[in-house]
Amino acid sequence: MDRRQAQRGTAAGPRLEHEVADGVATVVISNPAKRNAMTADMWAALPGLLDSLSADPAVRVLVLTGAGGTFCAGADITSLQDPAGRAQEAAVRAEEALAAFPRPTLAAVRGYCVGGGCQLAVACDLRFADQEASFGVTPAKLGIVYPASSTRRLVTLVGPATAKYLLFSGELIGAERALRTGLVDEVLPADGLEERVGAFARVLASRSQLTQAAAKEFADGRTDRDAYWEARARGSGDTAEGVAAFIERRAPRFTFTTGQDEDAPGSPVTSG
What's the pLDDT tens digit per position in 37-91? Predict the structure, then answer.
């Protein structure tokens, strides 16, 4: 088993922890004294942590969760007193870095997923929650203008009516309503969340990164990279391996890794 662990922040204070095991990177938001609220330092640390994990070929899936029984209760309120709005800018940078992570991302939600916490969960590809989870987007309670990019991402996920309900009211909704609106993909019993997330993350880690990377770009609205991904498919060997494994009734051994032999996004595709 490949297992490594590191953290951002002091050993006892607010921090981001991470561990890599069996192809799955787990990032833990840890600030228990404030229900895992994100401090300015935590917002600032997240993009760099994601960059390091995306550069690690051992990482095939990323799971974001919170320490203990809470996902994240939002931004540490003291950071919002900065009149220059630097905390919100840092939150948007963190959100965009999470949305741009090149491999599948999954939020495992217990308890409160509110404000900046919900912003991070929405930036993940998928969200699994326990039955007691609560979700809310709360800038209207504080007189804060929710960023345009964050609003668009929320609208894309749940539709304009639900997005307006959440943004206009700041009210919390439960896991079952979140499931009905598309904010959540699966709702699990509290004692089954960790097992289900672990099992599903292992499924994702076993699948073709070629398929996943292309699907993620297309699902997120990219429309100019069909030829690029066709070229990657021809050169990767994943298709031949997948078909051979199916015929031979064995697990495939996919070798394509995101970032492998790739041009920079938007650059011309070469035949190699």
Answer: 999 999 999 999 999 999 999 999 999 999 999 999 998 877 666 655 677 899 9
Contact 115, 75 (CB under 8 A): yes
Q: Domain tally for the chain?
A: 2
Within this chain, do residues 219 and 84 fall inside the same structural domain, yes or no?
no
Amino acid at position 227, single letter: A
Residues ≥6 apart with Cβ < 8 Å to 253: 241, 245
Q: 145-175, pLDDT tens digit by residue? A: 999 999 999 999 999 999 999 999 999 999 9
Q: Which range marks the domain in which residue 238 is found? A: 209-272
Which of 204, 227, 259 terminates a domain? The answer is 204
β-sheet bridge partners, residue 16: 8, 29
In three-state form (DSSP H/G/I as H, E/B as E, the rest C), the secondary structure along 231-264 is HHHHHHCHHHHHHHHHHHCCCCCCCCCCCCCCCC
Distance CA 205, CA 8 (A): 25
Query: Sign of the CA dihedral 122, 123, 125, 130?
Result: negative
47-73 burial, b for 16+ CB within 10 Å, e for fewer?
Answer: bebbeebbeeeebbbbbbbbbeebbbb
